[in-house]
Structure formats: C-alpha cells, structure tokens
Amino acid sequence: MLSKTTLAYSTILATLVTLPSFIIAQCATPSPAERYYYSLASANSKLYMFGGSLGDAEYEVWYLDLANNFDTSCPPWNKATTLLTSSSVSTSPHLFGVAFNPNNKDSIYVQGGDAIKSTMQQPIVYSTNQNNYTQPTASVGTPISARSQMTATVDSTNNKVWIVGGRDPFPFGQDGVIKTHNDIYSYQFNDNVASITMDKVSINSPYGPPPARFGHSTTLVNNRLFTIGGYIGVNETTEMIIDFASASVYDISSNSAISMETTGDIPNARIGYSAVASQDGHSIIVFGGIMGDSLGSVTNDVLVLDTCTLTWNKQYINGHSNGRATHQAYMHGKYMITAMGISGHVGKKPISSDDVAILDTESWTWVTSIPSGYSPSGVSTSPSCSFDFPPLPAEARVAGNAPKSYDISVITNPNAHHEALTTPEKGGIGVAVPLFVIACLVGAFFWYRRRQRNKSRQLNPRWMPGALSSNSMTAGSSQPGAGTSPKNDYPLFTYNNNTDGNNGQNPGAGTTANQGGLRTYTATDHDQWERQLIQDNERSIANDDKPMARHEDVWSRMRGLHAPGDEEQRH
User: Fold this and answer.
1) What is the pTM for the complete model shown?
2) Quick one: which of 356, 479, 497, 516 has the fewest CB in 10 Å?
C-alpha cells in the first residue's frame, strides 16, 4: 500500500508530465469577447471589427491577420494599438453600424448605428496606419440622415458605396420609436479620404416604392443590388420580420428597381444572419440567424440564392458548425470567414459565441484552417449567368401582380415553373401521398377478403342454427362416393314421391321415405342438387332460355304438395 508521501509525489509527477501538452494545447493569442451587432471591413489583408456589444471595452478595435497562418483553434487576432479613449472627438461606442473600404487602401469608413455620440451618424475615417479617426466632409450632394441597421455595399469597381434603408437611431442600449427608410444613397470616393460626394438616388420603381426596411442584407452581384430579409415597421413600437419569398433588385445601370418573387426551397424567415457574394459571380450565400418562429432558435443553415433566377437552395454542408447569429461574414477567396456573434439565449440574455469558423464554398465543408500561402481570387467577373431585368411598364402601376403583406410592389417570377412547389406544399404532398397509398391498400385488402369469403361460402343454405351435423356419411353408406355427402337431415319440405319420375324407387340419398308415398326433402338433398347444378354444362351448351331437366324434376316433385287429402298425412 502506497504511503501518503509516495502518493503525493506520484500526483505531482503525473501533473508535471501532462502539463507541457496542456500548455501547448492552449492558444496564447488574445482575442475579443462578447462581440455582436458589430461591423466588418478589410484593408491590407486584415479584417477589422468595429463596434458591437463590447462590455467595458467600447473603444477596442481588433483585426484578423489573413496573411498569416489561419487556424480556428488559435485565430490570428490582433488588438490595434489605438489612441482611442472615451474623450475621443469622432468615435463612439455603437451598435448596428456599418464599416466599408471602397478602394481597399489603408482607410476604413465607419458610420451610424445606435451610438452614444451623434458624430457617428456621418462617416468617420479610421486609419489602419495611424490607428486614429478623422472626420471627413461631404463635398457635394445631400448628407444622409442619421440612421441605424442600414446596409453599406461596396462597389469597388466604381469606388462607390451604396447605403440602403435603415431606421432612425435608438438611444444607445435602449428601445425607441421605429421610423424606417426605403431610400438609397450613393457615396462617391476619390483619392482624398476627407472628401465624400453623397447623393440620394432617384429610383425608377414602376410598381410602387420598395418597402422601408431595416436589419436586412444588401449584396452587389453583377452590377445589381439584391436586398432581402430584415424588418418593416408596423407602427412606432412594433416591427414585422420580412420573409425570403421575395427580393428587391436595384439595377445600377438603369437606375430601376423591382421586387420579385423568389422560387425554389424558400427558407423560413430569420434575422441576424449574414449574406455575402459567392465567388461564382451570381450567387449569394446566407448563413445562420435567429429563426423568426416563437422559439427564436439560432440556426447553422447555409442557404444559397441564385440571383440569375432568384431560386433558393438549402446547401448540404460537410462537417459541423454551431449556430451563429448577429454576426458578419467575409469572403476570402473561396473561404467564407465568420466570427463572434451569439449562439443562443438564456432567457433574454444572449450567449456570446467567441470563436471563428471557416467554410470552404467549393467543397461546402467546414474546415479548421486556411492553407499557408493561400492567395485568394476575387469574385468571378464572367459568371455563367446573370439576372435579366424584366421589361418595365411604360406607365407606373399602383402595385405588383404578386403583392406580399410587407411589399405590395412584388411581381411574379418569370423563371418560376408553375409546377414548382414551396416547402409547405412539398410537405403536404409528402403526407397526402402515403395516406392515399395506405387507403388504397386497405380498400384492396377488404375487397380481397370479401372475394375470398364469397368463394368459400357454402352453397347449401344454413337456415337454422345447428342444422349442419358432423361429417358422418349418410346411413347405409360405408364409402364416400356418388350420392354421399356430409349428413345434414334437417327437413326442408315434403313432396309426393309418386310423381318423381322413378315410381317411388330409389328415393335418393338423404331423402326419407314416409307413409302414403310422401317424401321429405332435406338440406342434404338441396346441397347435392346445388353442387350438381354448378357442374352442369347444360346452360353454357344451349343458352336457349329453356328450363333444364333438373329444374323440371324438382318442380314435378313439388306439384303434389297441396294435393287434396294429403294434409292429414303430413307430420
């Protein structure tokens, strides 16, 4: 038995042996925590994170270094050495803001959201080299009004950013009056980072104005802006979630906008999801979100919208990733990188998700790392297809021909097949078809059972219970054969045997002789007659409606039943 001293030394030794591997397994790189409702923007192969729910670290700026080895077990997070403090003039803690870099240089613009300082309601410039903010000026056009939960979509080809929708800001960390916007602003940039040209776009929308929405997503694909999801304001205190059964499309070239039905496997409504343009140049990848049902669960769904036909497809994914919501995503070549956000709720309190996930969008597999030396390629400039903007009516219409409760300007999708079914319709058919098959099988079973019963039914009528005796032979017969049958001598009627055609001889098996020439016709006689009748081919040979000889014989026996004077001889 080991002493206490020996046991103590053994425990210490075991701890020392396992300690190095434990230390090696830990990630020593610091990382942000509890970040959701933040915004992302890239510059110089770095992915910067701004704003969000930060606890006490309201001014921190973090970035992922995409040029270094990238492994999700220890992501390459870095904390920017900023000069930001609570006394900074321009910046402010904020939620639901936007961040964008129109020319992929060393300056990132940050704007809006529910912020403590009103200076956030116009774009401010964050220098990735100097780690500080400056306030630019709007040189031309109309400055945008203060707003939150809008979208900022970069058009790097034209050095533009498109701001779509949003709502008036709430007081930081509080609810407020819901006032929504359905406008589109364009920001034109040049080499001078302090100068922005802002213009409110005058949109040609022949089926009526698009809905005012917030908390949505807007993605630029092949010179068109596709806006989906989000909320609309029902009144000043209530919002409604917009489903994915339609998409608003703005064509930059023609300055025209329509709302069109989507088709395919239309996903359920959700909020707090991410949406990015796929590398193929014509698809939008949607990930995660909080389901719009009563449960409010966080999903890990990956959905793909083919913008050529506005067709949805739920993508099967290899591997597993936890559900994530209120996050952002970024396309690094074929890899979709997503980080932070929440994974659920405890009561009304969100559960932060402080990890990073990587989705390979070629193999559709969640991976744990990006290969060293990976050089990303951009979105395809020659996609296999593109969205065909439909001919617009010459005169403005009041509404579209397929209005929704949240958008009366929706029109039908010409690419949708009439036989195409929605997910609820597919579910209905999936239930109805098996029920129909089961009903047919049950009907066939009862039909077969009835037929078998008819085939096996005894030809001899059993008019009285107990009339059928055991399978003993008729009295006087030792071998079964012609004229023998199971004995069943229950009397049916009597007849005058003097007219049976054989002068009273051989009364027949089963018949009982009585005094005065009367005979008793029993159930056995009737059974034999029916069996012989089935075997009789006389009807099939001569179908001339003449009575058969067997019928004549029976009727001749029955003629004397009521002959004068026979009543007293009956039993």
Assistant:
1) 0.70
2) 479
